[in-house]
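ok so i was messing around last nite and threw this chain in just to see what happens. nothing serious, just curious
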Amino acid sequence: MERKDKEIEEIKKFRKKFYDDHANDYDNEWWNDENALEEFKGFKKFVKVKPGDMVLDIATGTGTFLIEMAKAGAICYGIDQSPKMLEKLRFKVKQERMEKNVEKISVGTAEKLPYTDGILNWVVCIGMLEYYPLEYAKAVLLEIIRVLKPEGHCFIDIPNPNNSYARERDWIYSYNLEEFEKMIKSLELKISARNNAGYMFQYLLFKP
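result:
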């Protein structure tokens, strides 16, 4: 396990540097990516936040998903490892005049969320788990369960193992879907919906 922990820490350091280095051009690249646009459509279809909902966007980056939830009237929290990406997010929050709906943006990691137990209606984690082994995904889900209220929802994505994108890139973890879903159910989360979006597989989860 110590070896796996060291591997995870190395990945986190690499991803932080990667996103710090790409913060200035990230949004332009994202909105020109057809796969990313499919992911965004899936997000809008399944993530139905209500005004006043308390929501968290893990690996929020420049806040594409966080700002959409803020526009829907949710009270939003965002967390990301990359300070440079969060600088871009803070600028966009001001530009969109969403300050009253964005409660706090923090530098931090997904397996140690700085939030009280059971305070959130929604947690979103998009475009992050693909870089980590299944053990880390489980640790993140346990934290998500901790901060969610009963009857709260979670929206996550992982690479579709049937798509060549994941198989052809050695930095992408391609989970076995049966094993991944077994892990989800072992944590007593309910799978409310599944969706194939670009090269990703999206899950809407429910905490009973």
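not much to say yet. The two ends are 31 Å apart (CA to CA).
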